[in-house]
Specification:
This is Nucleobase:cation symporter-1, NCS1 family. With 479 residues, the chain is mainly α. Helices cover 67% and strands 1% of the residues. It has a single domain, classed as Hydantoin permease, CATH 1.10.4160. A hairpin with a 2-residue loop joins strand 1 and strand 2. The radius of gyration is 22 Å and the shape is globular.
Amino acid sequence: MTATATTAERGLAYDPRLTNADLAPLEKQTWGSYNIFAFWMSDVHSVGGYVTAGSLFLLGLSGWQVLVALLAGIGIVYFFCNLVAKPSQQTGVPYPVICRSVFGVLGANVPAVIRGLIAVAWYGIQTYLASAALDVVLLKLFPSLLPYASVQQYGFLGLSALGWASFTALWLLQAAVFWTGMETIRRFIDFCGPAVYVVMFLLAGYLIARAGWGAIDFTLGEVEHTGWASLPVMFGAIALVVSYFSGPMLNFGDFSRYGRSFAAVKRGNLLGLPVNFLVFAVLVVVTASLTVPVFGELLTDPVATVARIDSTFAIVLGALTFSIATIGINIVANFISPAFDFSNVSPRRISWRAGGMIAAVGSVLITPWNLYHNPEVIHYTLETLGAFIGPLFGVLIAGHYVVARQQVDVDDLFTMSPAGKYWYHKGYNPRAIIATTLASLVAMVPVLVPALADAAPYSWFIGMALGFVLFTLLSRGRR
């Protein structure tokens, strides 16, 4: 890919309506492979990641089939992350800015706002999951708070008084970490991922010591699907893995832009996705399977598992670690993305920090505890998000790799001149808007129509493929 200075040659400066210090190309790119690896560890090692991985082992498949599905799904994520990482790493600009090359300098606000709103939903969900872990600590230390943990006695909008207190405390803590800037965030995520591994291995070791190695079972539920009948269920599991990572995968350019080289980014992705996720998934199923002989029931929530240990220190350490880890994923995946996305809408009025705070406020208004409270709702949420994220991904990849042949004129990303390469029609590329809209509508059909429910887990793939094909066809002759 090349980045030619066409705008500079014409003597045009970056337009203030399209740029600020956060959106402009980076002068220094300092992240190495470990930083990218730590980013993915923070993304995977959360309560949400644990619960999602555990839910896949309850689909009625054998353990080895689930592991194959997990590895296939994360392999797809790895491949696509490398695709979306390259243009941002080589130009030094975030996701909404690189979208200007495909959607137009103003049209890029369409994918930016969609991704930003999705991040708001996930930000609220992850904050809620972290607050639930904090509730466990507080109840262990202060049993007298138990009545305030009841929604029936002291509840508002579906959340208990204690839940509101924990949610608010973590909401403020995350905002404080984010406000300090990207360098502090980098150091924070460098710590979070490894910290969870330490606690996970300690938890697994404790359960093994109680139940013995022979109690480990990689099949958490009854095996209901065998032979060819298991393939549709495995494909569904693969699709859900991709949907779970679809958000950070789409805007991974927000982070790959900091990579010192594309090779370093790819190494970090390899360690952080296929390698790391498989190890984490094995730890999840080992830990969950051992809860049956040790506690008498299957527990797929790590916080609930930690709460059963007869040690206040262990409970506090485990729950706080999972809370911190969930804060890590929340900041990197759901705070930074809308910060760039909303700032892109009006760079002069909305700074990176202001964009992040818009997302934080919105995350409370959606009452996220109502979006992620059981496996059925979890899967429906993932399917809906996938239907909107897939088309954005497909259009961006088609635009960059097929239509533009990896050519980006960086300076033209920041000009409002009609002579600019990415002005298209009044700042919008109608082909990209049409392809995204049609693909999203079609991808949502199986999610909303019960008769097509079997296709719902593939909403991301349907949307991505349609977005890619439609935009490629609409752009024929414009390569």
